[in-house]
Amino acid sequence: MLALDNKWIWDFWLAREGADWHAFFLQAPKAIGDPELRHWNVSIGHATSPDLSGWTYRGTCFGPSDGPAWDNFTTWTGSVVRGDDDTWHLFYTGTCRQEDGKKQRIGHATAKVPGAWERVGDGLALDLDPVLYEEYTPGHWHDRAMRDPWVMRDPDGDGWVMYFTARVPGIPEANDGGAIGLARSADLHDWMIEPPVHTGGFGQLEVPQVVRVGERWVCLFCTAGEHWSRAYAASYGGPPVTGTHYLIADSHLGPWSVAPGRFFDADASGSRYAGRLVQDGNSLFEMAFLGNTPDGEFIGALSDPVPVTIGVDGLLTIERPDERDS
Q: Does residue 107 lie in a domain region?
């Protein structure tokens, strides 16, 4: 697995270049003492691997802007794609110190070599539309959610689609206002925000990843047990857990529904979080960052890949490492 002696690692995203895998991830120095402070002391790290297990750390590749800027406080979770001209594109979450990090926006940087990122202009790619998505509402939710962009080619034709973590306005129960947002672009530079493709069930659906698995589309997301809606908690048939689950649909645009049965990769302590599906040839794996131990200690490392099984019903299961070893 990928672990650093002097830094915590958490949310991550992957890109493939020939035989090499590139991992980009959030990192923070352990010298700050409290891992809860990592979100506000963050930069983006880079590592490479031939097999998703043995990693070479390449250092810090991106971080907050200097001086007054929309992203001068934090640079959080994103995704990386390669354009038609072989330029690499990083889309990331940014917040502003002058807004106390309460309002999230989505940024854009490019590179000819993965990891050598430079902002496109001031970096801002997409801002929130308050008609479609919930603005910062103190006392109702703790931030203005517009983060964790997942960008991919539009399966229906030319152009690109972006999914992101968001919330929708006008929902009385805070834990039922989470959403997966949508935007489109013809060229990876100019984006048009659209209505969400999924709403409800949770207060937030973090780190979305949309992939085709067999005959269906899957949208991975992660959330904490404390952010389950009352209706979903009542329907689950067990105590709330923290970790990664997924939505399923026949189209990448939905309609999406929460996959039935147990949460895909979750437990009471949140020992694995922000999972990603990884397709390598005909094999399907999941990776996650290692979060809290049962005693509450934060680990902050990137897991090895775990095989994923696709059932005859199209649903996904993994053999969690703790279950396999028990």
A: yes
β-strand partners of 213: 216
As a whole number of Å, the end-to-end CA separation of the chain is 20
Going by C-alpha positions, the residue among 35, 38, 55 that lies closest to residue 47 is 55
What are the backbone angles phi and psi of residue 240, rounded to the nearest 5°? -60, 145
CA distance to 15, 70, 269, 283, per residue, from 278 (Å): 10, 32, 24, 8
Q: Are 203 and 73 in contact, with CB atoms under 8 Å apart?
A: no
- Is residue 315 domain-resident? yes
User: Cα(26)–Cα(45) distance, rounded to whole angstroms?
Assistant: 6
Nearest to 266 by CA among 295, 316, 224: 224
Strands of 74-82's sheet, edge to edge? 74-82, 88-95, 105-111, 118-126
Domain membership flag for residue 1:
no
CB 46 within 8 A of CB 61: yes
Q: Are 240 and 223 within 8 A, CB to CB? A: no
Instruction: Compute the distance between CA of residue 101 and CA of residue 72 in angstroms, rounded to an integer.
Output: 9
**Separation between Cα atoms, residue 104 and residue 142, nearest integer Å:** 12
CATH at residue 255: 2.115.10.20
Whether 91 is in a domain gets the answer yes
Note if the pTM is more than 0.90: yes
Domain ranges, residue 211: 7-325
- pLDDT value at residue 326: 37
Q: What are phi and psi of 187, to 5 degrees?
A: -140, 10
> What is the 8-class DSSP label of residue 202?
B
Look at the chain and report how many structural domains it folds into: 1
Helix (H, G, I), strand (E, B) or coil at 323: helix
Q: Which helix (H) or strand (E) holds 190?
A: none
* Per-residue b or e along 227-257, where b marks 16 or more CB atoms closer than 10 Å to that residue's CB: bbbeebbeebeeebbbbbbbbbbeebbbebe
User: Per residue in 141-175, pLDDT tens?
Assistant: 999 999 999 999 999 988 999 999 999 999 999 99
